[in-house]
Amino acid sequence: MSQFEIRDLHKAFENEEVLKGVSLNVERGEIVSFIGPSGGGKSTLLRCVNLLERYDTGQILYDGQDILGKGFNLERYRAEVCMIFQNFNLFDHLSVLENLNIAQVHVLGRSRQEASEKSMLMLEKVGLQDYYRADTRRLSGGQKQRVAIARALCMDPKALLLDEPTSALDPMMVDEVLNVIRDLSNEGLTLMIVTHEMRFAREISQRIAFLYQGRLLEIGSPEQIFDPQTEQLRAFLSNYI
Predict the structure, then answer these.
(1) Is the separation of the CB atoms in 27 and 85 below 8 Å?
(2) Domain count for the chain
(3) Radius of gyration of the chain from Cα atoms?
(4) What strand order describes the sheet that includes 215-220?
(5) For residue 219, pLDDT beyond 80
(6) CA distances from 33 to 37, 141, 162, 166, 213 (A)
(7) What are phi and psi of 22, to 5 degrees?
(8) d(CA 33, CA 209)
């Protein structure tokens, strides 16, 4: 059984159809990158998987259960399937440690001491253990994104959805975040990554999916995707190679 089964997903905003029947399965522990031109539906797809957007028709199954089905435990799902946003979504009025603790206490029911211990371990994992008292407003973009990743890891997720995790960063800071994601790729987590970093996608992914104008035109191994079969993918990759 696949961890995620996405079946004929459609999503429109007003009169514009953004997803036009997208279907794919993602296996447990698999790393899938989504590439394609802006406006092709990549971020919308991830937001539908996390139910930040409600899709119009189609179905998403998680471990065989419909995520919109009666009796589905949505709170557990959101703890197990964590989203990393391009703009970090940290609480600016809280310290780094408090940003990591808050969901652990209020969603997982951990004590503040348990949460803090977990937070420090995850901050060490992303190389920010010395910043636990820092004001998040004073962090660099790369540091903020690493805090956001650490915050997600504190929830003991089974899958991470990463929506353009480097797009809001200075070019000098991109590598520090990509290196953290590379490390995560060796830990058995399912990763679904929207990215414009083609070299990174080729290196880290087991499969790459190409979305174009709301449709999944090609999906396959990095070797298959970088030997494109459609004119649209060939034209898209020509901008990066």
Answers:
(1) no
(2) 1
(3) 18
(4) 81-84, 159-163, 190-194, 31-35, 207-212, 215-220
(5) yes
(6) 14, 22, 9, 14, 17
(7) -80, 130
(8) 6
* Distance, CA of 207 to CA of 32 (rounded, Å): 5
Whether 113 maps to a domain, the answer reads no
Residue 138 resides in a domain = no
What residue numbers bound the domain in which 50 lies? 4-87+159-237
Per 3-state DSSP, the chain is made up of helix, strand and coil in percentages (nearest 5) of: 40, 25, 35
Quick one: average pLDDT of 189-210? 94
Domain membership flag for residue 82: yes
The answer to whether residues 180 and 166 touch, using CB atoms and an 8 Å cutoff, is no
C-beta atoms surrounding 160 within 10 Å: 22
Q: Which residues contact 227 (CB under 8 A, 6 or more apart)?
A: none
CATH of the domain at 30: 3.40.50.300
**How confident is the model over 105-126, as pLDDT tens digits?**
998 999 999 999 999 999 999 9
